[in-house]
Amino acid sequence: MEDAKLLRQYEVMLRERYFVLEQCTQNAKGKIHGYLHCYTGEEAIAAGICADLTPKDTVFSTHRAEGHLVSMGARFDRMMAESFGRVDGYGKGLGGVMHMSVPEIGLVHSNGVVGGGIGLAVGAALAHRYRKDGRVAVAFFGDGASSHGVLYEGMNLASVWKLPVIFVLENNGFAISSPASKMISVADVARRADGFSLPGITVDGNDLVAVYEAASAAIRRARTGEGPTFLECKTYRTRGHNEGDPQWYYRTREEVKDWEQNRDPVKRCKALLISKGLLTEEKDKAMIDAIKKELAEAVAFADASLYPGEEYLEKYVWKEQ
Amino acid sequence: MAELTYGKAIGRAIAEEMRRDPDVFVMGENVGTTGNIFKVLEGLLAEFGEERVRDTPLAEEIIINAAVGSAMAGLRPVAEIMYVDFTTFGLDALLNQASKSWFNSAGRVNCPMVLRCPQGAGPGRGSHHTNSLEAWFAHVPGLKVVLPATPADAKGLMVSAIRDDNPVVFLEHKQLYFTKGEVPDGEYSIPLGKADVKRAGKDLTIVCYSITVHTALKAAELLRKEGIEAEVLDLRCLMPLDREAVLASVAKTRRAMVLYEAPVHYGAGGEIVTLIQQELFRDLRAPVRRIGGLHTHIAYAPNLCAAAVPTVEQVAAAARDLVGYKRKA
Q1: For this structure, is B129 an active site residue?
Q2: Does B53 contact chain A (CB < 8 Å)?
Q3: Does domain A3-300 have CATH number 3.30.300.30?
Q4: What residues contact B187, with CB distance under 8 A and at least 6 apart?
Q5: Is A127 a residue whose pLDDT tops 90?
Q6: Nearest CA in chain B to A148
Q7: Which CATH number describes the domain made up of B196-324?
Q8: Mean pLDDT score across all residues of chain A
């Protein structure tokens, strides 16, 4: 990973982290009334996967979408407005915090249905293959979704048709409260890719460089017609399944603290950058300050925006000819 | 004009659209080499090749998902599920994804696709190949539902379904595939949501679609000999529903029945009867009738299969009741 890209994607991680934390603040104030699923602790995956994607690629996200949105370049103000359910949000307040679509940056669809985007990404990859346009489709999903049948139908189809799709499993260890160790029959889900004759790779999802290197190779394979890749990124979500999750009945504070203190992807990347002489504390603080300023503006933008009027109640049921 | 079967008319519409628009392609189980098990798509593989006529694994969930995803990415898939009964494997893609993408994105991502499925009763198939699910699909905001009854309509409606910018469920009755009729050559489309008077009459309206259009026409012939003139109104689409055509016909005849093959309860009939009663209550000479399938499954035995769905005699009897109905003075 080149230095310039490493630094740029570190900043992307900061943007993911602080955007989500600001959402948590706004949620606590009652301004975000929907289910808020925080990406905190998983930022290296989105930043690493999306680094070599372009707005012409097609990313299908999950209910935990903000990291993917930020990494593809979504605007803070329109995301915050959508989280508030306001008319200036990306979905005019109709879609909401789990369903943001920003096709102009390549993020086609995020999804309230666990596993709901996997098959759609396979379909988008079919479109890319059909048009021979060199684009790539990406399906993000979690360990819970990895038990869905559509993943295995999708891997098979992508493999026999050599579709340019990357299956990105964000294995954060929990399907709400159910631990992956009790739900999934293998330690590394990526091993299942063998059964469908596509490369299955497991990486440390909290290591930006490791995720990036694996993603970059998978994207190259896809763009050059070599077909799909399954990429499992092991990670850990350091907040609850959603804000308000009474999580201490299924895991301990000590476990979370250990991940936050010793394996946090943002801290790890910062240490790497400092050791390489690419970042100083001052420069880091300046980046964070700039992000916080942009966030304050985003919150003000969302606050000033109205709820959608009743003219939107039935407006987008059909696309008129 | 050419005489074509209903099945071939559908195949011809798809082929013509594929020649016109390179984004249109076909996918499904045994659609290429076999040309679909009812031979609807025969000849397409030879003309368009494997990239555009794609035989899929027997995996309905990914067939529907891949169709939806490719449509979101700009193609116009015409996907097939071999029997409507098997759409259940992929309903998330249809009712959570395809139908909602335009809404959730507030007009950013649409899903221009056609999902073709044969449906309906037929002897010797048993209950897993004979469901009639149109009311399920019509209930979902964002899906259009088309049910042609004749070869010409099948062609014209398929052309419009492919050109539509929304997800369209195109339900073909398997007993109609080998029925024949005149079909216009070349460019021919019928707008979605326009009903068609298949037979004019003054005494009652039979609102119907798909195979029951033929049941209604046969019943109308019986009734004609008795001096009762039935109007047969073929809806052709359940969604959008041609409310104006229903109301115009019933305003004229002042008696109506709704006729369909699916189990009668909680089906399309409730919707249409309500429409008529709300708008035309004072004009009606008799309560609106609803004739449909029994609330049961389609049996393997031919006698039970035939008895589970509306018959010509049942329709004629209901029509006589309607015409003979006396309101309180």
Answers
A1: yes
A2: no
A3: no
A4: B16
A5: yes
A6: B61
A7: 3.40.50.920
A8: 97
